[in-house]
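User: quick one, fold this
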Amino acid sequence: MSPFSVSQALAAGRRFIRTREPSCNTETLPPMVYETATAAAACTMSGRKPRSVANPLEPAITTPSERILKECHSLYVDSENGLVKIASSLGVRLLPPRKKIIVMIMGNHSAGKSSFINWYAEEHIQKAGVAIETQGFTFITSGRKRESLTGNATLHLYPHFRPLLEFKGVMDYLSAEISTSKQKKFNLVTFVDTPGLVDGDMVYPFDVNSAITWLGEQADLVFVFFDPMGQALCKRTLNIVEKLSEKCGDKLLFYLSKADEAGKETDRQRVMMQIVQELCRRPGLNKCGFEMPTIYIPNPQRPSRCVNQIDGVCQTIEKTINQAVQKTLDQLEKDCDLICSTISSQQEQDRADVAHNKSVRLHSFLCGALGIILPVLFVLSFIVNTISKDQLDQVLGEGPARTLFVFTGIVMYLWDWIPEDGQVVFVIIFGAFCYLLLFLAKYFAGRGNKTLTKKEKRTMAEYSDYIQDIVKTKKGNLYEWYLQQCAAEYDF
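Assistant:
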């Protein structure tokens, strides 16, 4: 990213803050709507025709939670000033937050997983039946166009789940279904329909236990559907549930699906008792506050006296969406702090490298100077010793000649102290010492650290200003607007 683009963003943000009209009631407007209205007003006042906007009615149709999640996501993936791009230039890897929560549904085959997804979206998306209809992992989400995606396209749509490639064979059984439904909170939810689990000699084309366990760790919610028609105590299901309970027990929610098909009330109670007894036998699942609501797909043509708590499932999803908004805003602040701290640490390291380079250059200069001056002075002493003082005064002048005679005199005085039979050895040692000094000069010259250029320093400073002045300010406005949707006016 060029520094110019960051400067433009900073200037635009400051102009936007300065030009806000106090007479306009902006408290009830979301940040995205207010910015659009401000831009349109500016165009009208200047006599220019306002530009056409894609999806102009989107702010009026989408929910506050959806707009906040999209705004946060855009702060990460913006092509010019996105946090992902800024972090990448600093050597930090960031993933943009998901715009939707992930709800994984697992259970034995024919437990009603696909039927629940179809009911929630109010559209027939997944096949549902007594046989094993779902053999792989299917991501079901809301989009602009009804489409089916294969494994590779699915991972491009959900880069967070790319580690699934480590599970051999999963790629061929990975797909996504995109629906245009906007019912309930479906536009903020991505369901993960898992393979129907059975015991016995059933062979899966991949390690289904490990794959489901990994996906459960990534999901925001994990719904476990127990079928009352004889498969509720599937050991494979219970084994996976026990593993998930150890790692992410707060995400697990148990439901007795197809409760209207369990017969009389006494039969339902008996089934639930059997399930609870089996769960309590496993140490990882024997916890207090265990709940297992009864749910079934309502059918007006076949009324049932069984209590249906399926609306509670919708409320749980909506609550998780609201929590996801808060987590996304909190994560945005953490990522901003991470980028700012990375910039500060790199700037501090650069200052340390500059001081280190100065010290290294000084050592290199001293060693190099001594490595050259000492042998020159040694040779020059013998040459000067053959020239009379008067001749040297005429050539150099009285002052320089006197200084040169002093230094060469010291060298010759020390040379006379050396026995004649040891002078050759001394010359060899002296030559080796001078060579060592030159080698050390070269060694110290190569020990310097790379430092930041002026352009890089300026870019980092602009990054930091952009994060502090634009991103964090916008995050605060989004958080305040989110709280205004639920808190009373006098709380602000």
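User: anything notable?
Assistant: Strands lie at 101-107, 137-142, 147-149, 174-179, 189-193, 221-226, 252-256.
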